[in-house]
Structures are given as structure tokens and as C-alpha cells.
Amino acid sequence: MTMEKAIINVGRQFGSGGRLVALEIGKRLGIKVYDNELITKAAEESGFSKDLFLKSDERRSLFTVSSFFASGHYGMTENYINDNELFRIQSAVIRQLAEEGPAIFIGRCSDYILRDKKCLDVFITAPRENRIKRVATRLGISPTEAESLMNRKDRTRETYYNYFTFGNWGVASNYDLCVDSSILGIEETAAFIIEFGKKCGIVG
């Protein structure tokens, strides 16, 4: 497979450095990384404000959208939109971006959405104590606060993933590769994933 079609999907535990690993992979390979940019793109494609997608990011609930309509592409026949519809919109954007060329997707159930394509599906993890320390340092909060936030974020990601994919978030059998980022560090973990992708024929 050439770099023109290389697709890497990165799932991650909160505080594992998964986003940093994905960005490092993107930098080394010269491939666009989609995270928050994907939300913006989905908003532009759907005609809704980006704020709606930010509020619904990786969680399930209903949100009123009367104040969020941007261009009215979907009309005003309903005064709310549920996360199933938001997920459908984001899924269409992910598939479109995957068709356009190489891409790295962080979260958003991209491994499930692109399950019919040849992709490298990776999950980034790290020991609990390492993640607590990383979150506390990054956000300037206490270890206790960091652990509480970490637990909430992981529960949210697990609920979101399991609901939309009918699968199990973070379970090794769902991915091609699961990596503990604390062993090699961010840069070397990225290098390891790239080398694995080459051996798999995903990365040219």
C-alpha cells in the first residue's frame, strides 16, 4: 500500500499520550492528523455550528440546536438532533477524508467506521500511575483530581465507543496493535507504530 492511501486509527486511554503519539506519527510521515479538526470539518459539512459537535464530543445525549443552526441545511422541522445523527454526520466525514488520501484519525470510532478498509488500528495505553502523573502535570491539578478526571474521561470514551460500535473499547482483540506508551516514550512509540505499519503493508 502506498502512502497515498495509508490510514491509521488511534484509540487511547486518557493520559496515555495517545494524541501526542498520533501527532508524532503524522509529523514523521507527513500525514494529516484529524481530531478537533474533524469536528470543525463535520460542522462545515452539515451546516451546524462547531459548538454543537464540541458539546456532543464523545458522549451520548440530546442537545437543543435552535441556537446552533448555521446555514439551515437541515431545515427547522425538528428543534433537536440526537447523537445518532451527529455520529452519522461525523462518520460520513471520516469516510470522505479516508477516500481523499492518507490520514490519521484519533478516536471517534474511526476503526469501526472504516472497518471495511485496510487500516492500521492502534490503541495507546499506559499504567495508571503514569497517566495520573501526566494529566496532573499537563493540567496543573492534584493527583487526586487527575485520577478523577481520568476515570470520567475513560468512562465517557468507553460508553461512546461501545454504544456506537456494539464492541468493547480498549479490548486488544479490536485492534491490530496495543502499545504501552510509557515503555518507549512518545517519539519512540510513534516510531515503533510506523515500523509495525510498514511490516503490515499499511505504511509505504
Superfamily (CATH H level) name: P-loop containing nucleotide triphosphate hydrolases
Question: Which strand-content bin applies to the residues?
Answer: 5-15%
Query: What's the number of extended β-strand segments?
Result: 7
What CATH calls the topology is Rossmann fold
Multimeric state: single chain
Return Rg in Å: 17 Å
Count of folded domains: 1
Order of helices and strands: EHEHHEEHEHEHHEH
Mean pLDDT: 85
In short:
The chain is 52% helix and 14% strand. The chain has eight helices and seven strands.
Give your account of this protein's structure.
The chain contains eight helices and seven strands. The radius of gyration is 17 Å and the shape is globular. With 204 residues, it is of the alpha/beta class. The chain starts with 6 loop residues before the first strand and ends with a helix. The model is unreliable at 60-79 (pLDDT under 50). A five-stranded parallel β-sheet has the order 2-5-1-6-7, with helices on both faces. The protein has helices at 18-29, 36-46, 50-55, 83-100, 110-113, 128-139, 143-165, 181-200, and strands at 7-12, 33-34, 62-64, 80-82, 103-106, 120-125, 177-180. The longest helix is centred in the last third of the chain and has 23 residues, at 143-165. It has a single domain, classed as P-loop containing nucleotide triphosphate hydrolases (Rossmann fold, 3-Layer(aba) Sandwich). Helix content is 52%, strand content 14%. Helix 1 crosses helix 8 (181-200), helix 2 crosses helix 4 (83-100) and helix 6 packs across helix 7 (143-165).
